[in-house]
Amino acid sequence: MDDTKVPEPLRQAVHQLVSEAVMNCQEVLRYTEPDIARDWKRMTMIRATDACDTIDTASMLIASYCQRTGMDMDTLASHLQTASSAARLLARGTRTGTKSPECSAHRVLPEGDRQRSAR
């Protein structure tokens, strides 16, 4: 197990992103309150998507740091839960016959993209 501490700039960035995602989730809850009947469908989906995108950014930032500091790609894929994410996505598409929107937090770059991003 790696005992190194999170670098301060990364820690600050992750805290900022997670705080932003939490605020978006709180707005989702707010738009489901009975006194906010107007526009609730649109706003709950917008804020939920915003939260998903922000958490995606946080996970990819952490993954990028791990990749650049030498984490094995199989370990990285395991931590990002790429296999279970792909299975969930396939199961959703199979049930509905369509692709479901999902955070890209569980995607890992293909080998060619990994080499280009390391430059």
UniProtKB/TrEMBL annotation:
Region (Disordered): 92-119
Listed name of the protein: ANTAR domain-containing protein
Compositionally biased region (Basic and acidic residues): 104-119
Top-level taxon of the source organism: Bacteria
